[in-house]
Protein: GTP pyrophosphokinase rsh
Organism: Lutimaribacter marinistellae
Amino acid sequence: MISADDLIALVRNYNPKANAERIAQAYAFGERMHEGQTRHSGEPYFTHPVAVAAILTEQQLDDATIITALLHDTIEDTKASYGQVTELFGSEVAMLVDGVTKLTNLQLSSRETKQAENFRKLFMAMSKDLRVILVKLADRLHNMRTIKAMKPEKQVQKARETMDIYAPLAGRMGMQWMREELEDLAFRVLNPEGRQSIIRRFITLQRETGDVIHRITGDMRHELDKAGIEAEVFGRAKKPYSIWRKMQEKDQGFSRLSDIYGFRVITDSENDCYRVLGAIHQRWRAVPGRFKDYISQPKSNGYRSIHTTVSGRDGKRVEVQIRTRQMHDVAETGVAAHWSYRDGVRSENPFAVDPAKWIANLTEQFDSEEDHEDFLEAVKLEMYSDQVFCFTPKGDVVKLPRGATPIDYAYAIHTRIGHACVGAKVDGIRVPLWTRLKNGQSVEIITAEGQTPQVTWLEIAVTGKAKTAIRRALREVDRERFIKLGQELARSGFEHVGRKATDKVLETAARHLRLKSRDELLARLGSAELTAHDLVEAVYPELARDDSDTVPQRRAVIGLEPGQGYERAPCCEPLPGERIVGITSRGKGVVVHTIDCDRLTEFENQPERWIDLHWHSGTHPAVYGTTLELTIGNDAGVLGRICTLIGEKKANISNLEFLDRKPDFYRLLICVELRDVEQLHSLMLMLEAESDVAAVERFRDKAAARAPAG
């Protein structure tokens, strides 16, 4: 265990003006409070708080944070009280210790509904003083370093929580080194065989190729010396988990994976960063699509660096990061740079961000207790997302998570713009609202007076901000409509199990689902945030599991006006279980399309024709035709065997049409009658596994999609 004098020496290395007496007092108090307590390993318990404090000295943090680390378990695990800590060490330290205690008591990995509430509390605590989470992250890092002393089942629980919550959080806060170590320590527990296989392959690679890092580092230094640029060059092999994740994402084996080595060049000035980039690109071939300039477009946590990937020796790809010393400090410590010291002076790094800014961007969206689930969704989107940068027509930059759509862009500009959005132009070309935006595109939003958010936008939007704004607008503007639709959904759902949706039943369901009123329940049901099955299960769980009765075809679609008929669109052939929308059509009633049907682009400027529809949540009869396009081998008995397999899946073949006949294969359309989309997926999986089936896909009738609008 590090002694008090050694800990003080670590602090004074970066802050000679540190209050040694206060740190020594906290050390003695913590040691006394934890006396007699031991860890799972048998060591004195106080070794843990001291190790946490030592980790925080590596980030050069202030005295209050170091003292909090020494005391972070005293209020929870010893006889020490909040008042006693306040009296001895001041209100700032007491508040920080109390904040860490509250975070420790949150069961963040819970599968219950309270997970969203706990996440909200975590972020609220962080927004008050981010040093609370810095101590908690250091606490988790030391626990993961010493996790072997725990029981196996506890190890798995802690490792999963670390991988899901704490590692992404560390990365989002800019502490990439901590994210990588937390991920790798969790990987060691969750998949030890996978980790060992990566390490073994590394050893084999080094034996075959020698010290690649030393050679490439030398080559880079030589090129920079030739260009007259003063810079430091560092190289390293990437962590086992980072390599494993890339193998999974790219579906590649280790031998085919390229950039497993990373190099970092630290320069004196921003101008030198670009000179280094030029020298490296002149010497080695740049890999297209792998260049990112986070100096001109910094990340929200203050991260600045140039990233490029080049083909090095023997065609091996290597990733290079180029940054200044100040940029490097922020890249290593992230938001902790706000509290760090250098040579006894509070660091004034121009690239350090306001530590609570990105949390404030999240929390400002949520001002009511009913938004716990929305909050959880937005937090996860914010923590796990990569970013794309788009431009407004005036040239301003809008940052969005990868996969964002024009709807997300519109709400990022202003909620009012999002609400009034009717279309978008990307690089001057009109595109559907569900288009995925890419880096560098210029986006223009087309708005119209009287437009209001549509329920279908919830399927299109990606960002938490957009989804929350859409839900809120739908609740406010269309509340009465949703309550009316919810009543119909509830009536139909309870009738399906032989019960009535009385006021008392609905109030009981609302209480069980923790909603404040019957109307709130119906509004959420009508806006597709709840299903009729959720309501039935809340009141009659035993009946909700009984799906022996099938839903008649005439009652299969919910959301139509009394007496209003519907037909399934031939272009997309929607099936029960899919997200659908209705388009009113002269002479046809309502035509039902899948939410991703290409033909819907024709109706973007006619929002008055759109109707929010849902399939009934019960079991449907196998009467819904959908068409599959198959390519099969032209051998004796193949077609008969395919037809038999389809029959075994309880699907009836209603039509069969040959598109192409070749000596070695047939291409044909088979129309099958199915219950729902789940049966379709099951059928397609079975056909894909058949050796005589070369290809199978769901057929979309382009001719029907191009038919004139009715």
Observations:
- Residues 45 and 481 are 60 Å apart (CA to CA).
